[in-house]
Amino acid sequence: MGPWCAQMGVGGWVGMGVFWLVVVALVLWGVSRLFPAHHSTPRQVLDERLASGDIDPATYRALREELDGSRRGTFSGPA
Question: Can you give the residue ranges of every domain in the chain?
């Protein structure tokens, strides 16, 4: 085998594998916490726009009706 492999037994190799798996898992977990995914529904976006004052209540109601109609398959917006 040579001088490089003879110094570490099976337990050492398993331990090293577990160590690197833990390191990779921690890095992936940390990245997922830095960049969280935002899965907003169209209705939630519409609610947020009304709450922030981007749209007025009349526009909100009209867009909400369009969204509700599109869920039933009767969307009447531009093709």
Answer: 42-71
